[in-house]
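Title: [Solved] Gfo/Idh/MocA family oxidoreductase 3D structure

Original question kept below for reference.
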Amino acid sequence: MSTDRRKFLKHLGTSVLLTSASLTSLAAKEENEVRILEAQKRISPNDKIRVATIGMGIMGVNDTNAALTVPGIEMVAACDLYKGRLVRAKELYGKDIFTTMDHREILDRKDIDAVIVATSDNWHSQISIDAMRKGKAVYSEKPMVHQLSQGLEEIAVQRQTGKVFQVGSQRVSSIAYRKAKEAYESGAIGKINSIEALFNRQSALGAWQYTLPLDANIQNVDWARFQANAKNKVDFDPLRFFRWRNYREYGTGVAGDLFVHLLTGIHYITGSKGPESIYSIGDLAYWKDGRNVPDVMSAVIHYGETKEHPAFQVTLRVNFVSGEGEHSTTKIYGSDGVLDLGDGEGFTLRRNKMSVAPGIGGWDSLMTYPEAEQKKILDDYNKRYTAAQKEGQHDQDVIFKAPQGYNASNDHFANFFESIRTGKPVVEDAVFGFRAAAPALACNESYFQKKVIHWDAENMKVVG
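Solution (posted by the thread starter after getting help):
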């Protein structure tokens, strides 16, 4: 057992475990209390950060609410292409906030320090680039790009402007993922070889059939601006506007919405820069409502050996008609155990180390040999291996749980604003964000082109 692994397991066994088989992590509680105490520090007027949200849909409202859990954050403006959401923004955040249907008016204001970009995917990159060039810090919803071709330019602009830029995939700020990363780096599961990760859903809302307002008409929606960067323009369609995730012209399908979360967590824990090859298949199995992206998708992704990790493979799956209800997990398999990151803020560490001896008898060819030959083989086997070498190591499960009520999104915004105030590096910068988004978007490329996509993770470009 490595020294790091011994230290990690000793820590779990002494300061964290409450029972022999399960725990509510005292360490997690302590970390969360430190975060709360830090957040409760008195904020001077000079430390106040004035924020605007561009895109006041589901993610825009939830992101804004998470941002406002951080002391010293003031919501001053909102932008959306549907008038009703601007009315709602004033209801939620005050009648005095500035509202507009043109994001450029937000970027031109001198009293805004940071913007949250929570529009449809096709606008993430351009608005983020424009915002950084206007001197704003940017929190961009995932995926940070709509097309693979956009990533390097966005990274370049961030470097040129030096503005704080963070991608909104909160797993990199999660206590649970931080502890899982510690477990992985300690060698608790041995040498990694494969990962299985999935999101299953079983509801109309989970499949993006969101509720439409009764006043969804061309008078209340800036349809021209919404589809301004689409190659093919179409007449106003409320389904395309309010359920844009269903259309590849504006969204990135299950891969860009959900695979990117799974890959973000995988890259964070393993330290990987990305895979070498990506192949995906899919179907439109159930939700035949006019969408042009699949509702079931599976991908096989190969990560080659690097200085950061050995070679391993990843299988990803999203199923919008799973039959089992809402369920997600990421299982990281190693030679000595598995990290199982379930639906919530926690994980289970299972350790099963194989015996030195290969085993003999049972479902084995030994029984097919003559009795005399069997006896000789058994005698030889027992001479070569001790009793200890014949036994594998099967430890009790360790279950890690974050404190009750913990929300990683709040921490993710706290990290973003701390970077603005102190210059500390963000936890998910443009390079990390693109390296997580690119293989997810490559899954779409593979699906639509029916071929393997080869990826240069170091230089962040398609090969061949």
